[in-house]
Amino acid sequence: RFCVRNSGALAVVEGLGDHGCEYMTGGRVVVLGDTGRNFAAGMSGGIAYIYDPAGVFPEKCNKGMVKLGKVDAKDEQDALKAYIQKHKAWTGSQRAQDILDTWQTSLDNFVRVMPTDYERVLKERAAKADAAVAA
Fold first, then answer.
1. Is the dihedral of CA 97, 20, 5, 63 positive or negative?
2. What is the reported pLDDT for 132?
3. Cα angle: 85, vertex 90, 94; to 5 degrees
4. Quick one: which of 100, 84, 95, 97 has its CA closest to 49?
5. What is the spatial distance between Cα 99 and Cα 87, in angstroms, rounded to a whole number?
6. HSE of 99, CA atoms in CB hemisphere, 13 A
7. How wide is the angle at C-alpha 121 spanned by C-alphas 119 and 125, nearest 5°?
8. 121 φ, ψ to 5°?
9. In this predicted model, what pLDDT tens digit does every residue of 42-59 receive, in sequence order?
């Protein structure tokens, strides 16, 4: 159980066991390795990024409240890379270095875990902000 009920922290880890990000309501989690089963059960907020070159993560994820996708937005890609760079600087992680050394290829191996309600709220906020700017 890692980042259970996380409500705003940023965490970068190189693997975790069962029930990761259970009941998470905010923050960001980056997993640079394997996860256990039942990842994201009850996850209603925040975003997780799972490095999954073997393509096995979807089987381990509880998709009841989340959807899985790619990290498509440039600003989100840049933020993810910065999180991994800081992890490398603070820990000396060889895994982080390997991912950074092959960033363009590695980026395709990340799975973005986004709670569906949280995504809806973010889109509504963005639309309101855009409307306010246009007015």
1. positive
2. 87
3. 65
4. 84
5. 12
6. 28
7. 115
8. -65, -45
9. 999 999 999 999 999 999
Tell me which residue of 8, 28, 102, 24 sits closest to 62, measured CA to CA: 24
> Which tokens in the block code for residue 123?
């889109």
- Indicate the pTM of the whole model: 0.92
The residue count of the chain comes to 135
Residue with tokens 């990340």: 110
DSSP-derived secondary structure for 33-74: S---SSBTTT--EEEEEEE-TTS-HHHHB-TTSEEEE----H
In whole angstroms, give the CA distance from residue 100 to residue 95.
Answer: 9
**Cα Rg of the chain (Å, integer):** 15
DSSP tag of 5: T
**Cβ neighbours of 41 (radius 10 Å):** 20
- Token pair of 52, please? 């999954």
Question: Distance between CA 95 and CA 46 in Å, rounded?
Answer: 24
